[in-house]
Design a protein that fits this description.
This protein is mostly beta strands. It has helices spanning 38-41, 123-127, 239-249; strands at 12-13, 33-34, 47-52, 56-64, 67-70, 89-93, 102-111, 131-135, 159-166, 169-184, 189-192, 204-209, 212-225, 228-234. The chain is built from 3 helices and 14 strands.
Length: 277
């Protein structure tokens, strides 16, 4: 199932800064590798494409059987600033070459209280650019395991990894298994050398703790520095847990972050829907 003519413009831009094609690659940073096959994508299927209406997309990650994590600005129309109807959003777990491991609609969403689309693009907006969405049905498949959250923010100089969909690579995710945290700012922002582009908003940033990927940030924006593009994300702290609790308070089923699902028997692999522009 091919989705054409998507406007992959959900990645917010910092004021006065124009992103360029080359990232601020550090010694030891790896190149992007496409996860275009089942074998290549094994272990990363919980990262999916988040279609917002039929016009744009972001990246999102399963963090519980019925919860996904993404950037808050993905839930707003970039032209009007209006909140997008959750019924017009679809999560495609492990989407590649026209097929998803599982496709789910969205029941509801909560965003970080400090986030606002008003007042233009700002570093404060990046620091609070978080949202947790509740799926209309849980995903319980052995090959689509929710990712756990890290207990601490990575230090400057640490190696991290990013899995994302983006412009010109919208039909399969790409993995950069090593990029670098350049700065952990006091305003709660992480500056990274990771290679990103439009559509990578909401992409998970991982640290490998004991060989197991743990989410340490979410991609929010890109900025230019001396002709090179930088990736901007936020320090998570306990905010994801707080957003999960807010969904629970609204009547959702309480879920633990990183809960291991059981196999799904209804063959969700074939449930992805056509999206026509």
């Amino acid at each position: 199932m091919l989705i054409r003519n998507l406007i992959a413009a959900a990645l917010v831009m910092m004021p006065g800064l124009v992103p360029l094609g080359a990232s601020a690659q550090m010694p030891g940073d790896s190149r992007l590798q496409m996860l275009g096959t089942s074998d290549a994508g094994r272990g990363w299927m919980a990262v999916g494409r988040l279609n917002i209406t039929a016009r744009s997309f972001c990246t999102a990650t399963l963090i519980a059987p019925d919860r996904i994590l993404t950037a808050a600005h993905c839930l707003f129309d970039s032209n009007t600033g209006a909140r997008v109807d959750e019924r017009a959003i679809e999560f495609l777990a492990g989407w590649r070459t026209g097929r998803a491991e599982a496709a789910r609609g969205i029941r509801r969403a909560v965003i970080e209280p400090g986030f606002s689309m008003q007042g233009g693009q700002s570093l404060q907006r990046v620091a609070n650019d978080l949202a947790v969405l509740e799926l209309d049905r849980p995903i319980r498949m052995t090959g689509v395991q929710p990712f756990p959250m890290a207990g601490h923010a990575p230090a400057a100089g640490s190696a991290v990894a990013v899995v994302s969909y983006a412009r010109e690579r919208a039909e399969a995710p790409s993995l950069q298994d090593r990029c670098t945290v350049l700065d952990r700012r006091t305003d709660g922002i992480l500056v990274m050398s990771c290679a990103i582009d439009f559509g990578a908003s909401g992409a998970p940033v991982f640290a490998l703790d004991g060989g197991v990927p743990h989410i340490v940030s979410v991609i929010s924006a890109m900025a230019d520095s001396d002709g090179s593009s930088l990736a901007l994300g936020m320090q998570l702290g306990a905010r994801v847990e707080a957003l999960m609790a807010e969904l629970d308070n609204q009547g959702g089923t309480p879920r633990r972050l990183g809960l291991s699902p059981t196999p799904e028997s209804d063959g969700a692999r074939g449930s992805a829907r056509f999206v026509r522009p």
